[in-house]
Amino acid sequence: MQAPLLFPFRNQRLWLSGQRALFWEEQRILLLSDLHLGKSGHFRKEGIAVPGAVMKQDMHRLLALLQFFRPEQLVVVGDFFHSRANIELELFRRWRADIAGQRIVLVRGNHDILPADWYRENEIEVVEEPLRIGDFCLAHDPADAPPGVYTFCGHLHPGYVLNGIARQSLRLPCFYFGKDYCILPAFGGFTGLATIRPQKSETVFIIAEGSVMKVS
Q1: Of 24, 38, 62, 84, which is most buried by a Cβ count within 10 Å?
Q2: Beta partners for 40?
Q3: Whole-angstrom Cα distance, residue 147 to residue 138?
Q4: Whole-model pTM?
Q5: CATH number of the domain at 5-214, please?
Q6: Any idea where the domains of the chain sit in the sequence?
Q7: Model confidence over 1-51: pLDDT tens digits?
């Protein structure tokens, strides 16, 4: 795993990981969004051939992040899971048992529709957005960011387009720090990207081959 990039922001130390997650040092929080676990299984259930290794790769990356940062809590700002139960959620249940001591908090997203008992059985604390922590808020959808409080959110799966010569272009996942909120990259490997067009006053960090780089 590539070394994370330190981004001092509003008197806080944020470590941006090329594995599509953010570590908030002062709060000892590993923060990420939009895993959409079980999405590949949902598509296969509908007869669409999607490789079964997608979710296993996501779980492996997440475990590596937990081992690297040793956070007090893992906070997911929405869409931890993609839909209703399927066979891949049993894989998550076994994965969760291996890290039983890790606190996990879910700020509910629009795809988090599993029964309340399922979250309790897997020791996931579910809270409604927005969640206030210190001088910041956590919410799934940027539209739900409360006015006057800087918010970390997800939902949009942000991507940034790099343009090269001969009309070549490449769209990459990114961290987007706008005026009022930060949109985290989608953690899940089986997710699309929505192109953002930042203003000059905004900050974007692209993710390429596991590394994080600031866009000038």
Answers
A1: 38
A2: none
A3: 13
A4: 0.90
A5: 3.60.21
A6: 5-214
A7: 789 999 999 999 999 999 999 999 999 999 999 998 875 544 445 444 455
